[in-house]
Amino acid sequence: MAPRKLFGTDGIRGRANIAPMTPELALRLGRAIAFVARKHGRKSPKILIGKDTRLSGYMLEQAMAAGICAMGGRVLLCGPIPTPAVANLTHSMRADAGVVISASHNPFGDNGIKIFGHDGFKLPDEEEADIERLLEDECLDRGPTGAAIGNAVRLDDAAGRYIVFAKNTFPGDLTLDGLKVVVDAAHGAAYKVAPRVFEELGADVITLGVRPNGININKNCGALHPEHVQKEVLRHKAHLGIALDGDADRLILIDEHGAIVDGDAVMAICASRMIRDKRLAKKTLVATVMSNMGLEHAMAAVGGKLLRTAVGDRYVVEAMRKHKLSLGGEQSGHLVFLDHATTGDGTVAALQVLATTAREGKTVSELASIMQRVPQVLESRTMSRRLPLDSMPQLTTLIAQVEKKLGKNGRVLVRWSGTEPLLRFMAEGPDRKQLKSLIAELHQAATRDLA
């Protein structure tokens, strides 16, 4: 398969109105998506478009819709709704594809486009590569005419449909009555729906980040800045704080003491309960190579296993589907409950934790104590150029030596950033000072290889 130039691990992303993230590309991409859907049998394919609250979303949404209509497609405009809402609606409404216009946790000046297939799952790498090739094909310049041209309508109840779906992932015999929660929607896609989900289930909700103006998404709020939720949890003596990112597919929790509970801890909480209820398929949790070793230890303590994948929630989901597993995610807070959703969903993940607190009669901090983090050091260094790691002999030799030195008590991971000449180092082990020294040695070895 030829390498993808536009699509990264989470769709296409870049500075809005600068190539590639331009309305011209969005229009062409809309044509390509509709063309592929027509090839699969439907003369007038149905395609959903959702977005977050960025100012540039209007520009890209309209261009994308125009391209789909130009190829005879029918567009359902959902407005600002979470990424997982688009995935869910695409499948439940039997649409041919779903498009999300969002740059997730990036600053407002960026934007992105990601595509879901008819089944609600993100497109695999090979299908994204096919769409890239199609963008250069002259067949996209020949669309239907007359009555065969497509149309676009607004799906006015998109948010309401998602709220009903999210609430239905919470056990019907439980409520959130008597609970006080702080919800920070990052002035993003979930600014309306997330507070309503928790309110309608009975919680007393204190809201943050629910006044988007097009340029304040993710700005000093949400999952990137959980300190605001921490402060409000303590001030209001809340039971839980929920910090979402711009498209609400990512979650950081704050316990009743104001401490951060990251994605690894959330997975440990939920996986242990699912094992007890015999709901965790094959007693196996899926996480990326970035998840802390403490997660492995927590899973072993309850008789479970951890399967690791490459970085990126799409690879977590691919492994879950391949091995027929039910829970996976990332340390950063992308959490996928495959029994409920096809992609990461911050709101659904928070509900699963709340259900566990209710079932076990424990606080979030008590539940999170199941996972004891192993000291972890993460550093990124800009290098002079990029080379495949297997073409860097001094680095690869030293990695093997470091791994032998750490043994079962630690591990090391070195990987390139997806696009930049940025080398990322991660080391885990009992001695943080030793880890920082080892990363410095690894950086020196990489520098010598690139000299």
Note the topology.
Elements: E1 12-15, H1 23-39, E2 46-51, H2 56-70, E3 74-80, H3 83-92, E4 97-101, E5 110-117, H4 125-134, E6 151-154, H5 158-168, E7 180-184, H6 193-200, E8 204-208, H7 227-236, E9 240-244, E10 251-254, E11 260-261, H8 263-276, E12 284-288, H9 293-301, E13 305-309, H10 313-323, E14 327-329, E15 335-337, H11 346-360, H12 364-368, E16 376-382, H13 393-406, E17 411-416, E18 422-428, H14 432-450
Parallel strand pairs: 2-3, 2-4, 3-6, 7-8, 7-9, 12-13, 12-14
Antiparallel strand pairs: 1-5, 4-5, 9-10, 10-11, 14-15, 16-18, 17-18
Helix pairs in contact: 1-2, 5-6, 8-9, 8-11, 13-14
Describe this structure in words.
- The chain is an alpha/beta fold.
- The chain folds into 4 domains: 12-156, Alpha-D-Glucose-1,6-Bisphosphate, subunit A, domain 3 (Alpha-D-Glucose-1,6-Bisphosphate, Chain A, domain 3); 179-248, 3-Layer(aba) Sandwich (Alpha-D-Glucose-1,6-Bisphosphate, Chain A, domain 3); 261-368, Alpha-D-Glucose-1,6-Bisphosphate, Chain A, domain 3 (3-Layer(aba) Sandwich); 376-450, Alpha-D-phosphohexomutase, C-terminal domain (TATA-Binding Protein, 2-Layer Sandwich).
- It is built from 14 helices and 18 strands.
- The strands form 4 sheets. Strands 1-5-4-2-3-6 form a 6-stranded mixed beta sheet, with helices on both faces.
- Strand 2, helix 2 (56-70) and strand 3 (74-80) form a beta-alpha-beta unit.
- The longest helix is centred in the C-terminal third of the chain and has 19 residues, at 432-450.
- The radius of gyration is 22 Å and the shape is globular.
- The model has no long low-confidence stretch (mean pLDDT 95).
